[in-house]
Design goal:
Helices cover 28% and strands 27% of the residues. With 230 residues, it is of the alpha/beta class.
């Protein structure tokens, strides 16, 4: 399996997704927009695309001109029926590529908060547990794209996940973080941890039990097997 990974910030890499890809003997190619001077690789040479998070907005094309080319590549991947997983900013980029609006969420959501599945009429979608604690770090949200299924929500943000057909999943939240990678994010972006209803403070972020990361990783593996091994 040949995987192309879009990375937008040095601290927002594959995380524990990498362990699963290595277990599948997948070949991983990174395109790191924050320090790349070369063109985006041809998506036709890959089986799947994984799009990671980042601190910018999908609407920041003036500040980050590469967003325009990235969206063109995502659209090509969609049209060519590649397997696609988007995390946080990555999900927002997929949503925008599918014509959905992306903009401010009513609440900033940072820290460990539960999501719940959305039980719709489509039985052929990924189902999360009835309550799953996950890591959030966002202030924006996406509309559910036309013809996509709404698959997850939280109290602070209704649109936490969507699925398009059997090969595209976008998640607003993070299952891929481990304790160390979260602590590095906290150190880098601790100025954002101003206590609000859905924003955990720095102490709370450092105090998340290991068991929570283990549960997230278990559910991540289930999702990856569902998406990439179907």
């Amino acid at each position: 399996m040949e995987i192309l990974v879009f990375q937008h910030h040095p601290l927002e890499g594959l995380g524990t997704i990498k362990h699963w890809l290595e277990s599948q003997q997948a070949a991983i190619t990174y395109h790191k927009f924050y320090n790349e001077g070369r063109a985006i690789p041809d998506i036709d040479n890959y089986d799947a695309l994984i799009i990671m998070g980042g601190p910018m907005s999908v609407n920041d094309e003036a500040q980050y001109p590469w967003i325009v080319d990235e969206i063109k590549t995502i659209k090509r991947a969609i049209n060519n029926q590649k397997k696609i997983l988007g995390i946080c900013l990555g999900a927002q980029l997929i949503a925008k590529s599918l014509g959905a609006l992306v903009g401010p969420n009513p609440h900033k959501e940072i820290g460990l908060h539960p999501i719940s599945p959305v039980h719709g009429s489509n039985n052929d979608i990924f189902m999360f547990p009835n309550r799953l604690n996950v890591i959030h770090w966002h202030s924006q949200t996406f509309d559910i794209p036309m013809n996509a299924s709404h698959i997850a929500r939280s109290e602070a943000c209704n649109n936490q996940g969507f699925q398009m057909g059997k090969n595209i999943i976008g998640l607003q939240f993070h299952l891929e973080l481990d304790k160390l990678s979260l602590e590095l994010l906290v150190q880098e972006f601790n100025n954002q941890l101003i206590r609000e209803k859905y924003v955990n403070d720095e102490r709370s972020m450092y105090s998340i039990p290991n068991e929570e990361f283990e549960i997230m990783n278990k559910n991540l593996v289930i999702l990856l097997n569902y998406l990439f091994n179907k």
